[in-house]
Amino acid sequence: MDDPNRQPLPMDGKKGGLTRRQLLGGAITGAIGLAAARLFTLDDFIALAQASTPDDDLVERFMSLSAKLIPQYNLDPAIGRRLLDALNQHFEDTPESLAYLAQVIDQPQSQWDDAQRNAAKRVLYGWYTGIVGEGEKAVVVIYEDALQFRCVENELIVRSYCPNKPGFWAEKPTARSA
Question: Do 146 and 127 contact (CB within 8 A), yes or no?
Fold first, then answer.
């Protein structure tokens, strides 16, 4: 592949010079980098990140509502923020439906209407399964920290990790201690 008639440039690692392809590739990469830097500033990226995440007050209200729906667990606010963000992206009526649910959260569930039950189901489904949405549009927000695994953590291991050495399943199981 090396051209015997090629005159190497002074910086080439093999023959003391830089090839035209290396020079052209570096120039194109640099030009793309400069163009991108002019299009997006750090402030643009910060504004984009802030615009796509729920504000702290909304997250706090979501965590309060979640704690009333799931009082037996201490819920992680970082996970709550991610769940709320996913709920907002998948369901346009999330802020309204959560506010509507908050109006009756302290009342018996028998007094809730269908819209309030559906809002509660979305929140519970997100916390317990770690999934928001349905079908092909569903996204996994959390896996290992989903509450479905916390319910049985004294007996079962989250099936995302090998819990022992290879071939452990051939041995008699040992009881886990809490």
Answer: yes
- Write the DSSP assignment of 91-143 as a string of letters: -TTHHHHHHHHHTTTTS-GGG--HHHHHHHHHHHHHHHH-EES-GGG-EE--S
- The answer on 72 and 132 residing in a single domain is yes
Give pTM, 2 decimals.
0.61
Longest CA–CA span in the chain (Å) reads: 87
Q: Please tell me the distance from the alpha carbon of residue 163 to that of residue 22, in angstroms, as a whole number.
A: 48
Angle at 79 between CA 135 and CA 88, to 5 degrees: 50
Give CA–CA dist 19/23, Å, rounded. 6
The answer to whether residue 155 scores a pLDDT higher than 80 is no
- Cβ(63)–Cβ(77) below 8 Å: yes
Q: 98 and 131, same structural domain? A: yes
* Residue 39 clears pLDDT 70, i.e. is over it: no
Can you read off the two tokens belonging to residue 87? 């709920």
Assess whether 101 and 63 both reside in one domain: yes
The SS3 assignment for 44 reads helix
